[in-house]
Amino acid sequence: MGLLLQTPRARGRRLVRRITADASSPLADRVVLVTGASSGIGEATARAVARRGARVLLVARRADELDRVRMVIEGAGGVASSYPCDLTDGDAVDRLVTQVLAEHGAVDHLVNNAGRSIRRSLRLSEDRFHDFERTMAVNYFGPVRLTMGLLPAMRSQRFGHVVNVLTWGVQVKAPKFAAYIASKTALDTWSRIAGRETFADNVTFTNMRLGLVRTPMVSPTEAYARLPALSPERAAELVVRALEDRPVTVGTIPGAVAELFNLVAPRLSDLAFSLADRRFPDSAAARGQR
Ligand SMILES: NC(=O)c1ccc[n+]([C@@H]2O[C@H](COP(=O)([O-])OP(=O)(O)OC[C@H]3O[C@@H](n4cnc5c(N)ncnc54)[C@H](OP(=O)(O)O)[C@@H]3O)[C@@H](O)[C@H]2O)c1
Q1: Which of 7, 90, 114, 242 is 20 to 30 A from 134 via CA?
Q2: Which of 61, 146, 227, 231 to mutate to test the pocket of ligand 1 (most atoms within 8 A of CB)?
Q3: pLDDT digits (tens, 9 = 90+) for 145-181
Q4: What is the fold, at CATH topology level, of the domain defined by 20-279?
Q5: What ranges do the domains of the chain cover?
Q6: Whose CA is nearest to atom 45 of ligand 1?
């Protein structure tokens, strides 16, 4: 929109955005869709990409929280729009894709960040098959459906990048996380294969195997209270770097060591994790006590 057609307030915002945005970032003026933007890593990522001059599309279920994040971004001179959507509802995801493509033509960068973690032993999961269904719904089927909807426009504009916010658990294979880690591993593998099919169209994928981040997701797990963790803002900076540099994977040294340990000494690694499994029992939340 030309500057003369804008209200004084919008002109002011645009000016602030020009001054504060990092014009050298490849994200400037790009359309970046972030799922799970109402909280934690997703919120911090949305704010960080807006600071680099991207137009941010905020997706999560809670419309009021998305509007809060949108107003924070706009107050700082950025550009954001809210798209409330439950990613476990396939029809809602299809409607989201239709609306976003109608309004923006294509999404340049997609951050599949929305997710749900469950830490519960198999013994406590015997009558809880829904734990496995729910984690697959939000951590795998939701992002796959959304990505599939947005891929054709990325491929036809011959540019696109997808960042999946996964966990070092895909390398560690930590006890009590079977439902969560298996769903994240499914997205990790799907994206490696998708990236090979879309590589010739300049559409790429990054799998981020993050360690612990201090967000509402991990607060019910007492075992994490004293462990070192990244802030959501620090995690968001890693996501931004992945959006800008487009690496195949982003990981941690402990994740890589655990992967190697699993590979070279699988039974010894089983023994070590079995001892750790007994040392860190199910949390009160996993046992159904708050
Ligand atoms: N925290 C960690 O230690 C850690 C480590 C590695 C990876 N991760 C991954 O990082 C991602 C973000 O988690 P976080 O730690 O930032 O947790 P968080 O603060 O709890 O954020 C989770 C986000 O996902 C959204 N969400 C959940 N279910 C959804 C659904 N059905 N449809 C749409 N949005 C949904 C939530 O929004 P609504 O409730 O508004 O829908 C929220 O914005 C997750 O994928 C998580 O697995 C976290």
Answers
A1: 242
A2: 61
A3: 999 999 999 999 999 999 999 999 999 999 999 999 9
A4: Rossmann fold (3.40.50)
A5: 20-279
A6: 115
Mean pLDDT for all residues in the chain: 93
* Least confident range of 23-32, 101-110, 206-215: 23-32
Complete DSSP assignment for 19-84:
HHS-TTSTTTT-EEEEETTTSHHHHHHHHHHHHTTPEEEEEES-HHHHHHHHHHHHHTT-EEEEEE
Name residues whose C-beta falls within 8 Å of residue 287's C-beta, 6 or more positions apart in sequence: 124
Structure tokens that stand for 42 in this block: 């997703």
The answer, as to whether pTM is greater than 0.70, is yes
- Averaged over 176-187, what is the pLDDT? 98
Q: Pocket of ligand 1, candidates 39, 91, 140: which has the most ligand atoms within 8 Å of its Cβ, to mutate?
A: 39
Q: Of 87, 242, 83, give the one whose Cα is nearest residue 162.
A: 242
Element (H, E) at 133: helix 129-136
